[in-house]
Design a protein that fits this description.
The chain is an alpha/beta fold and 652 residues long. It is 60% helix and 8% strand. The chain binds guanosine-5'-diphosphate and magnesium ion.
């Protein structure tokens, strides 16, 4: 490796017109750090890249989306070739899906003076890391990692492989290589391989923090490329998408103008526009053309090309210019996404703190303290469910108070009853007439008897039993699910305690439900006795009659007097009964499903303190201790990241 990007980049920073004449000699090291542009680089670019790097090295990548550049494109469009040329590192290549896991290529430029020609490679995946001594080790190491993560064959995996390269010969960039979009599954590929790959790609490119490089062969119709469509779908305004045309040497004669118009953003315009590069073709590889020579060849290709020369002059062609452009884009992007990153970080920090608090501090080891710990846990639970009973519970357990929901159910029950008792006299009258017509015995017309009255009353009230039982069921569900949530959130970390609490609770809810059900059923049995206090009944009847003479139209007056009389009686009695049930059923439901049920739980919880073995009850789920550790580590990471970020923001 001897090509040197910072020099090459500083070359191109000059007027574009110079390019043709400038000597791109790769070994020259005369243009060193003294150039003003390099200073600009050290002052502006470096700190940004370092910021993201130090965030990365804190490991916050797991927690936050850091700015990155993802390379996407159809299979064989030249993605790996572009990455290779940018990084100076040979990556696995071949036919079919070669990239089967996201490969994060972290390129870190070492300053040449201090480090000479050092090269450090570090491959990490799935908690393993492997030091690489030489670029030639990369290909096998990546292939091996892919087999570990995605298996043999042609499947893909979402697990990331990270390849970190430090060298004086690479630009400061982080790039992500993704599997190419396959149009059809071949032999041993999963049938839905296209969808799998697209899902994976989308996961990366839809992040606001990712710049997408869409690689399209210049000899293809750009309008048909899947990758560009995918990118524009997740990046509607095209702010984060840069088009890269490859294989300019394979463009058909006569098609050059189309290519030029594409690069000049006149075919499918992108905010960030396009660049064009030429990488090693198959023949170059067969000829073992090394990456440095390939760059020379690329530059010569553009400089000597009768059509594409203009693109080089405009600074839109060649790998080194692309590298420069990308570094610039990345820096801009980092600066732009900083506020977002900070917001993300704050949110995550809050959530982590909250999660950690929910897990608690863990169980003390001392016997006596352990007992106290259990007592505290149980008391906290009992307080929480007492809150439900008193309609004072913490609203974090659901969107509405349990009692609010119950009250709504009760109001609903009243509505059901009202529609019964408010049945107009007119409909009741029709019913009486119908009843008399079909069931009349040997009596003469006009003798509507008490039996008829009783039968109609019983029928109507009987119809209310099912809605009453449904009310009981709905309220039970409301209370029980809330209690369940509370118990879960309090005892989550202790599976034994959770079990010990939940078993009896399940019994209690059934027991209380049954009792309430029996009471409601027996209430309806009692209602088959037609009864009301004489004075109440007479009072109600008087009201009904008074109202009826005022409200009712002519139609009622045409009904026979006895039928009218009967309708009045029915309305009166139904009103009284419905009023009785409007109170009675909710009272039963509330008594059993709220008061009794919750008291029973509270007593059982208290009983656990004395009787059981706290040691056993408080044995933590093995996962919880690990989770607590993870959360604590994350918290530390995020805090450090917060410091790094705010330091950067204030110094900028
Ligand atoms: P990927 O599947 O998108 O990673 O594509 P590769 O980078 O593996 O490239 C596919 C094929 O195109 C390989 O044989 C490359 O050598 C070839 N290729 C890539 N870029 C160019 C180019 O600029 N010119 C020519 N002629 N061939 C290229
Ligand atoms: Mg590839």
């Amino acid at each position: 490796m001897s090509h040197h990007y910072s020099q090459r980049i500083s070359h191109h920073r000059g007027a574009a017109g110079e390019l043709q004449s400038s000597d791109m000699s790769l070994s020259s090291s005369s243009k060193g750090k003294s150039s003003g542009l390099n200073q600009h680089y050290e002052e502006k670019v470096r700190p940004c890249i370092d910021l993201v790097d130090s965030l990365r090295s804190l490991g916050v990548e797991k927690d936050l989306n850091l700015p990155a550049i993802a390379v996407i494109g159809d299979q064989s469009s030249g993605k790996s070739s572009v990455l290779e040329a940018l990084s100076g590192v040979a990556l696995p290549r071949g036919i079919g899906i070669v990239t089967r896991c996201p490969l994060v290529l972290k390129l870190k430029k070492l300053s040449k003076d201090k480090n000479g020609h050092q090269w450090h490679g570090l491959l990490s995946y799935d908690k393993q890391t492997k030091k690489l001594k030489d670029p030639s080790e990369i290909e096998d190491a990546v292939l091996h990692a892919q087999i570990v993560l995605a298996g043999k064959g042609e499947g893909i995996s979402h697990e990331m492989i990270t390849l970190e390269i430090q060298s004086s010969d690479v630009p400061d960039l982080t790039l992500i290589d993704l599997p190419g979009i396959a149009r059809v599954a071949t032999g041993n590929q999963p049938k839905d391989i296209e969808k799998q790959i697209k899902d994976l790609i989308e996961k990366f490119i839809k992040k606001q923090e990712t710049i997408s490089l869409v690689v399209v062969p210049a000899n293809m119709d750009i309008a048909t490329t899947e990758a560009l469509q995918m990118a524009s779908k997740v990046d509607l305004t095209g702010q984060r998408t840069l088009g890269i045309l490859t294989k300019p040497d394979l463009v058909d004669k006569g098609m050059e103008d189309t290519v030029i118009r594409t690069v000049n953003n006149q075919v499918i315009p992108l905010k960030k526009g396009y660049m064009i590069v030429k990488c090693r073709g198959q023949q170059d590889i067969n000829d073992k053309l090394d990456l440095v020579k390939a760059l020379e060849k690329e530059r010569r290709f553009f400089a000597e090309h009768s059509h594409f020369r203009s693109l080089l002059e405009e600074g839109k062609a060649t790998i080194p210019l692309l590298a420069e452009r990308l570094t610039k884009e990345l820096v801009e992007h980092i600066t732009k996404t900083l506020p977002q990153l900070q917001k993300q970080l704050e949110k995550k920090l809050e959530k982590t703190t909250e999660d950690l608090r929910a897990l608690g501090d863990g169980v003390p080891t001392d016997e006596q303290e352990k007992n106290n710990f259990l007592i505290t846990k149980i008391r906290q639970l009992n307080d929480a469910i007492e809150g439900v009973k008193r309609a004072e519970e913490d609203l974090k357990y659901s969107d509405k108070r349990v009692f609010t929901k119950i009250r709504e159910e009760f109001a609903n029950w009243k509505l059901v009853l009202d529609t019964k008792s408010i049945k107009t006299e007119e409909t009741l009258r029709d019913e009486v007439q119908e009843y008399v017509r079909t069931r009349r015995g040997k009596e003469l017309p006009g003798f509507v008897n008490y039996r008829t009255f009783e039968n109609i009353v019983k029928k109507h009230i009987g119809e209310l039993e099912a809605p009453a039982l449904k009310l009981l069921k709905d309220v039970t569900e409301i209370v029980h699910s809330c209690v369940d949530r509370i118990v879960n959130s309090h005892f989550n970390a202790f599976p034994h305690l959770l079990r010990a609490a939940k078993d009896p609770i399940e019994d209690f809810v059934n027991e209380q439900f049954q009792r309430a059900e029996e009471k409601i059923q027996s209430q309806f049995k009692m209602e088959r006795i037609v009864y009301a206090q004489d004075s109440l009944y007479s009072h109600q009847l008087k009201n009904v009659k008074l109202k009826s003479s005022k409200d009712c139209g002519l139609s009622l007056q045409f009904a026979s007097a006895d039928v009218r009389e009967m309708a009045h009686h029915l309305t009166s009695y139904l009103t009284i009964t419905c009023n009785r049930l409007a109170n009675q059923v909710p009272l039963i439901v509330q008594y059993h499903m709220l008061d009794q049920y919750i008291s029973q739980i509270q007593n059982a919880m208290l009983a656990m303190i004395g009787g059981n073995n706290p040691e056993m009850l408080l044995r933590e789920d093995s996962g919880v201790a690990g989770k607590r550790k993870d959360l604590k580590e994350r918290l530390e990471r995020l805090k450090s990241a917060g410091k790094v970020l705010s330091k950067f923001v204030y110094s900028a």
